[in-house]
Amino acid sequence: MCSSNRATIPATHHNVGSYYRGKVQPLGIHHVSLNVRDLAESLHFFVDVVGLKERTDRPTFSFVGSWLDVGGGGQQLHLLEIEGFEAPAGQHFAMAVTDLDEAIASLRTKGVQVSEPQQLSAICRQAFFKDPTGNLIELNQPLQSPKTQTTEPQGLGR
Q: Which of 17, 29, 45, 66 is least enclosed by beta carbons within 10 angstroms?
């Protein structure tokens, strides 16, 4: 790690500068990119089954894909069609939900196998399911309101 020429970038978001002084200063996750074997099948799953909304502003790239909105917070899921792709074991991303039991019931009524919910201490309740490619996806219901959760990033080092 190079430490001699660190640039100090002014914070552009409340409270960010106090945690990331002189570092990248991330504001959040913009998108997660997910490799899928069959884009049409995956679009049907994520739009019609999970309930995400397909975006219309994806530029034309040299590869097949689609962009989806995840909730109303600006996060996106980018699907990339990769022939023969095999989902890696254990790798996953989590979608925050307000009612885990309702989310599980909705997916199960559409034929999706969802794990039984588990609680992680006083942090969250979670359950897992897989998309048609086999990518693991977590449903996560925080047990604390965002205002009472710890806001200082953990594990990024100083």
A: 29
